[in-house]
Amino acid sequence: MGDDAIQRRVDDLREEIDRANYEYYVLDQPSLTDAEYDALMRELRELEAVHPELVSPESPTQRVGAAPQAGFAEIQHPRPMLSLSNVYNEEELRAWAQRASRFAGGSELTFVAEPKIDGLAVALTYVDGVFDHGATRGDGFKGDDITQNLRTIRSIPLRLNPVPGGMMPRVLEVRGEVYMRKADFERLNAGIAANGGKLFMNPRNAAAGSLRQKDTRITASRPLRLFVYGIGYTEGEEAPGSHWEALEFLRAVGFAPSPDATRCDSVEEVWAECERWQAQRADLDFEADGVVIKVNDVRLQEEIGYVAREPRWATAYKFPPTQATSVIKEITINVSRTGALNPLAVLEPVNIGGVIVQRAALFNEDEIARKDIRARDTVVVERRGDVIPYVVKVLEERRDGSQTPFAMPATCPACGTPTHRADGEAMRYCPNAACPAQLREKVHHFVSRNAMDIVGLGEKLADRFVDLGLIHDVADLYTLDWDQVAALERLGDQSAANLRAAVEASKDRPLARLINALGIRHVGERTARLLADRFGSLDVLMEAPVKDVNAVGGIGGVLAESVVDFFQEPRNREVIAKLRRAGVRTADDRHSSGNGSSHLSGKTFVLTGRLSSLTRPQAEERLRQAGASVSGSVSKRTSFLVAGEEAGSKADRARDLKVPIIDEVALLRMLEGAEDTVPDGIEATDGAPVEAVLP
Ligand code: IVH
Questions:
Q1: What is the dihedral of CA 528, 532, 538, 540, to 10 degrees?
Q2: Would strands 142-144 and 314-318 be described as parallel, antiparallel, or unpaired?
Q3: Residue 516 three-state SS
Q4: CATH fold of 3-64
């Protein structure tokens, strides 16, 4: 390649990678597979290695982080970063709005309400559309220079899109909140726990701890994201005249603005928004601690003005607290279905944000030791959404001498077998596979709705079966003596008959449910489905070596080993043999002919937009099993573009190239269908879905 051609290729690669980051981290609609993304990055990195003169700070390769910096330099904010006043109820909200209106000379005000994201405030400065530097809020006037750390965050554009129909300010300072999604936080902490490390208290602490790293390689490895909520300062061009337009501007140039911001024409509407966010709070995938309300019109904002370091034109409605103090009555141990000993604090009942909390997770013995949690301690307990409440900290000043340090039991509290903790693991286990506590949990899981779905077999009844010795493993459910069951106190003939029918019906569940029901460590619904799709029968899966299991997209090494270990355990093989003898189906029909079909071989698919019945990885997995290949971008060689909801630019490109566009229904039919249902060389005339031509 000549120099020009190399420069062009480098530019193209950067553009494609930036777009992929944007689709993944801002739009939440990934368009490339991990492998495709990696390949682009690898090519770019190689070109930059050979041509170091082409490396520039806004290249996506510069997001990877660098060795420790000495410390953080200080950055002066061009305008102070303010804090917000708070209101706690509707009355205070109305009073705030009235005051604002008074300062605006009695004008009718319109507002924007948006979630108050619980993360870390940052200011990002772009010069001529290129990310130049970024800082923490600090004392509001000057903050730490965390430019290199911010560069690693994929939802932060390093280069802005041109402004549609307008001009980019020469200097643009954008403000927002760096945060971590709840699910990412849980995953991060699970990884840290598995390595016996110190857990983060909550997503906010995890975000703060990750962002303020001297070694930006650590920052790069953490799942941080950015929501922007305003423009702090511009030079060269005026900022938009309303907050709403500012959010639209930010979205257009490539940022993720705070989600679901709403324009409100009255205080009533604002209050309705506050209530709506509060009700949805637990379901949000990020932490929010309130709703920020801003006067929309920037000119009126200036008229309304500021008190001390708070704007009078904005305020925050704060949600009710999620923490409370309580006393630990005792620390108990719950033995899970894998034999893990889960320590649990039994609390004096306490009301946290309207829910009575009586138990809190203590995670593992290292966590207990680190926080020095003891029975009879007074503790701060936190409840967030659906996750089980946990102990934040001990109030040591409330100790009266009756508190006793906690030690994990040396023997299983359920069966007395000596417990065991492996090197490098945080959890202690009961190694007895016949432990009744484990069996109870195994049965609960086996019969649950997402597993074998045995209706009518609740946890209490399952426990009775275990405790009475009617079942010794999950397979015994299929050989229960029904007369004996009917004779159980308070059960009776009719219930027993219903239950028997439910047990019978469960024999015919799809393979994925059975795999999930077996309770293999680390295997949940999603992995079970991947395994069922790939292997088609328990016979094949049971004999699969680690490398084959690992080769299934989305299944990592630890998981693959756990699967293989499970099937190598003689007791587990015995249970599976019993299930089979009892008539439980252990294979999916469409695989019974052999190792899967390949009726889509030679076809190349590209996926875009959101599918409703499958996740993107599942769709890709199933296409590959059917012999098709899946690519990230549309080209002349693409056989079909599968367009889900909100399909983007790929659909335009497919139309340009006359690549047939099909919808999800057509995709599912193709996946299921036999050879002759696969259309060949359909002419897409106007880009309309070709579903109609399928039989
Ligand atoms: S606006 C003048 N909007 O809350 C307005 N702040 O207590 C100043 N925050 O330090 C901020 N979400 O870090 C605004 N949608 C949002 C916000 C938000 C979170 C944080 C921000 C600020 C603090 C103010």
A1: -130
A2: unpaired
A3: helix
A4: Helix Hairpins (1.10.287)
Architecture of domain 511-592: Orthogonal Bundle (1.10)
Rounded Cα–Cα distance for residues 197 and 394 (Å): 20
Q: How far is the CA of 158 from the centre of ligand 1 (A)?
A: 23
Of the residues 116, 294, 442, 650, which is catalytic? 116
For the chain, report the end-to-end CA distance as a whole number of angstroms.
48
* pLDDT tens, residue by residue, 140-197: 999 999 999 999 999 999 999 998 888 899 999 999 999 999 999 999 998 888 887 8
Residue 84 has pLDDT above 60, yes or no: yes
Ligand 1 centre to CA of 116 (Å) is 6
Provide DSSP, 361-375: E---HHHHHHHT--B
Q: Which of 357, 380, 276 is nearest to 319 (CA)?
A: 276
What residues have CB less than 8 Å from 199, skipping those under 6 apart?
189, 192, 193, 363, 367
Q: What are phi and psi of 631, to 5 degrees?
A: -125, 165
Hey, what are 384's tokens? 């967030």
Distance from C-alpha of 88 to C-alpha of 316, rounded to nearest angstrom: 8
d(CA 57, CA 694): 50
Q: Whose CA is nearest to atom 17 of ligand 1?
A: 116
Per CATH, the number for 85-318 is: 3.30.470.30
Instruction: Evaluate: CB of 220 within 6 angstroms of ligand 1.
Output: no
The length of the chain is 695
Q: Is the CB of 177 under 6 A from ligand 1?
A: yes
Residue nearest to atom 3 of ligand 1 (CA): 229
Q: Based on the residue annotation, tell me whether 142 is a catalytic residue of this protein.
A: no
269-305 tens-digit pLDDT: 999 999 999 988 878 889 998 999 999 999 999 999 9
Residue 292 in contact with ligand 1 by CB distance below 6 A: yes
Q: Cα(58) to centroid of ligand 1, in Å?
A: 27
Residue nearest ligand 1's atom 18 by CA: 116
Task: Write down the CATH superfamily of domain 323-432.
Answer: Nucleic acid-binding proteins (2.40.50.140)
Give the separation between CA 443 and CA 459, rounded to whole angstroms.
8
Neighbours of 455 (CB within 10 A): 14
Question: Ligand 1, from 82, 83, 243, 292: best to mutate by most atoms within 8 Å of Cβ?
Answer: 292
Question: CA 61, CA 278: separation in Å to the nearest integer?
Answer: 40
Chain segment 610-621, per-residue pLDDT in tens: 888 887 877 887
Domain ranges of the chain: 3-64, 85-318, 323-432, 436-506, 511-592, 597-695
Atom of ligand 1 nearest to the CA of 116: 12
82 Cα: distance to centroid of ligand 1 (angstroms): 8
Hey, which CATH number is domain 597-695, 1.20.1630.10, 3.40.50.2020, 3.40.50.10190, 2.60.120.830? 3.40.50.10190
**384-386-388 Cα angle (round to 5):** 75
Q: Which fold has domain 436-506?
A: DNA polymerase; domain 1 (1.10.150)
Q: Give which of 491, 494, 502, 504 is closest to 454, Cα–Cα.
A: 502
Please tell me the pTM assigned to this model: 0.57
Say if 436-506 and 511-592 have the same CATH topology: yes
